[in-house]
Design a protein that fits this description.
It is a single chain. With 392 residues, the chain is α/β, with parallel strands linked by helices. The protein has one domain. 15% of the residues lie in helices and 34% in strands. It has six helices and 23 strands. The protein has helices spanning 51-59, 131-136, 158-166, 214-230, 292-303, 355-359; strands spanning 7-9, 18-19, 25-27, 40-44, 66-73, 76-83, 95-109, 114-117, 140-142, 144-148, 151-156, 182-185, 189-190, 199-202, 209-213, 239-245, 247-250, 258-267, 272-279, 310-317, 320-326, 337-342, 345-350. Strands 1, 4, 7, 8, 12, 13, 14, 15, 16, 17, 18 and 19 form a twelve-stranded mixed beta sheet that branches. A hairpin with a 2-residue loop joins strand 10 and strand 11. The radius of gyration is 19 Å and the shape is globular.
Length: 392
């Protein structure tokens, strides 16, 4: 197992980044919104204690760094917990973040035998490169020069750049400071075979995609989070990233309620934060393209590590039909991408909503980069109340 590199994160808020970026500025030019696609993400809220418990654990150094924030909009004042320092505080301390990526090898029943989906194995359908390697070299891990809404936010990993843009005018901290997050890659973990009733395969060849019943998967994951903690691979001080290749989840055992590309969550006490994510090259789901799900999940973890941050009700946008009231920065823009070419390979990072989109600031003026409400400019104003909602 590689030694995990510890790195410094920007003072006002910790940011997830993963690769090294090129010299040219990357302008986030998004592709069109594709509302309510059948691929979606979800969240597992923490039930192991209160917000105060989590903040006490973070302050004592037994978990990842987290901070409390308050934000006031026209619909009221809301509080939550964010990874890193308080983005609205004065001169917050610089924090260090660590993360561990655990590739998951999954065998799924295809009707007559098992198909193996292995993110560590060279993928003949993707230039002979494994999903793990693609992830390591992606804009999530590499640093690039980013322009968001016409503002040069500096040299960062993608989520780092997003977080800078999200709070661009909300802090006096120097916007030139940048350090990537430290990632290590653990030995792969093999899940028990998802046989009949627990898994199925749609498509074949390069288009094969495994579908696993989430109840079966969650049992496996919960057991192995404890095992990985006891063996020292992960701990509450490290963000655990479980990387799948061309595998999605279904919340129903008959696979009719498909397809979950990933989710972030928190468990235990001290709180262990984690995320599950599919690196997808199957082409089966239009809004799951290479790192689109990982960028969605890591962005949401940064803004809502406990999965409990409340917002005014919003909805009828992105992957959401109806209303929801949580601070999930990826959900309203699921299916909206920017194509980033890095080392000759096209990656797709998902556009993400700024905090101001959820809370409707007074005067509807965003403190995000370019005074927009998302990092690709798809949202030029705040969310509509839900119901009844409006036209975006």
């Amino acid at each position: 197992m590689q030694k995990l590199q510890v790195i410094r994160i920007i003072p006002f808020v910790a940011v997830a980044t993963f690769a090294a970026w090129s010299v040219a500025t990357r302008s986030f030019a998004q592709e069109p919104v594709r509302p309510r696609l059948h691929g979606y993400s979800t969240v597992v809220p923490w039930t192991g204690g209160t917000t105060d418990d989590a903040l006490f654990q973070a302050a004592s150094g037994t978990t990842i760094p987290m901070a409390h924030y308050n934000v006031t909009g026209t619909r009221g004042t809301y509080s939550g917990v964010i990874v890193g320092g308080n983005p609205f505080g004065k001169d917050p301390d610089t924090v260090n973040l660590q993360a561990v990526v655990i590739p998951l090898i999954i065998q799924v029943w295809n009707g007559s035998t098992y198909t193996t989906f292995d993110p560590t194995k060279p993928n003949s359908c993707d230039g002979g490169v494994s999903a793990e390697t693609r992830f390591k070299k992606s804009p999530l891990v590499s640093e690039l020069t980013w322009s968001m809404n016409g503002v040069n936010v500096g040299d960062h990993q993608y989520i780092n750049a997003f977080m800078r843009a999200e709070f661009w005018n909300a802090t006096t901290v120097s916007k030139n400071l940048s350090d990537p997050i430290g990632f290590s890659f653990a030995a792969s973990l093999t899940m028990p075979s998802a046989g009949p009733g627990f898994g199925t395969v749609q498509g074949s060849g390069c288009n094969a995609q495994g579908i696993v019943y989430k109840g079966f998967f969650d049992t496996f994951l919960n057991v192995n989070i404890a095992v990985l903690q006891s063996s020292g691979v992960i701990s509450p001080t490290k963000f655990a990233v479980f990387l799948m290749k061309n595998v999605v989840l279904s919340s129903s055992s008959d696979f009719s309620n498909c397809c979950i590309g990933g989710y972030h969550g928190a468990t235990g006490s001290p709180v262990q934060t984690f995320a599950v994510m599919d690196y997808d090259t199957s082409g089966q789901i239009g809004n799951f393209l290479d790192i689109s799900v990982p960028s969605h999940e890591i962005g949401e973890w940064m803004n809502d590590p406990l999965g409990t941050n409340p917002t005014p009700k919003w909805g009828n946008i992105g992957q959401v039909s109806g209303c929801q009231s949580n601070f999930e920065v990826g959900d309203p823009l699921s299916g909206t991408f920017a194509t980033i070419t890095l080392n000759g390979y096209d990656y797709h990072v998902q556009e993400l909503a700024f905090i101001t989109w959820f809370f409707d600031p007074p005067g509807a003026i965003s403190f995000g980069a370019g005074e927009k409400f998302s990092n690709g400019g798809s949202f030029s104003g705040p969310s509509y109340p839900c119901p009844p909602g409006g036209t975006y």
